[in-house]
Amino acid sequence: MKKITCSLILLAITFSGLAQTLPNYSFENWVKTPSYEEPLPWNTPNPLTSLASVVTVEKSDDAYSGNYSAKLTTKKIEVGTISYVSPGLVTYADFHVDYQTLETSFSGGLLMPERISSLSGMYKYTGQNNDSATVLIYNFRHPEGEQIDTIGIGVLFLHDTGQWSPFTVQMNYLNDHQPDTFNVLMMSTASFNIEIMPLGSVLMLDSITVKTSTGIFDLNVGTIDLNVYPNPATNRIIFETTEPEKNRKVNIFDVSGKLVRQLDFNQKSLPLNLNGLPSGNYSYRIFTGNKLYNSGTFIKN
After folding, report:
1. Which tens digit of pLDDT belongs to each residue from 152-169?
2. Which of 214, 241, 271 is the last residue of a domain?
3. Are residues 175 and 32 in the same domain?
4. Which residues of 187-220 are buried (b: 16+ CB within 10 A; e: fewer)?
């Protein structure tokens, strides 16, 4: 039997590249392939397991909100002489599989320069042989030419419940650095060892939200085209979009997460006077109401 090998350490330190698409947090959007559906931009084991006509992540109409949820199931996979167990798993990281060794790795995540404090959602779970589901969150930064800096990580194990129930996993920060990438991995088992991974555990997921030190935002919306320049800036920085929008605002935060400026951003262009702000790194959010449309960072010299 060939094995799929994976560990929390691997997940925390093995990254390359960024997936910049905002997430399908409510699992309403599914893309059909000839043999399965994918809740894009989530990545799943389905491209591999479907080779054995098995799907471990499926669309379900048993939803907490909206029309659909995601159903993750641990299943046995057999392709010729190769046999292994795969969990149901969803992640924003790129899911890499070596089709000769069946080893897996994860890289990248969601471009999000925010210090996430927690991730919450709704779930149902039926575990086999005292199994539990896993929710793993982490963030990091990877400046060009530098090594990966893992900034925070959080893990939560979910137990049996036949009703839609809330869960929250807290991020534990390892340093005070500003991340540029966030990822979440949720799967139908607590085991990363295929030798003891119970078959048949089922995790249902819906209505995922993230919370930062500066509030809760709905990320299940599209981005806006945004140009921020010059960056780094000295006296003034300009936020520029292609369309005006009523009730749009921009918030500016310092590295501690303190709100230092809030401005209306109803027109296509917004010049921001930086006089009075100390030199350093700042983050921004573009939003209307509680809907986040863009975020990023800039440097004031």
Report:
1. 999 999 999 999 999 999
2. 214
3. yes
4. bbbbbbebeebbeebbbbbbbbbbbbebeebebb
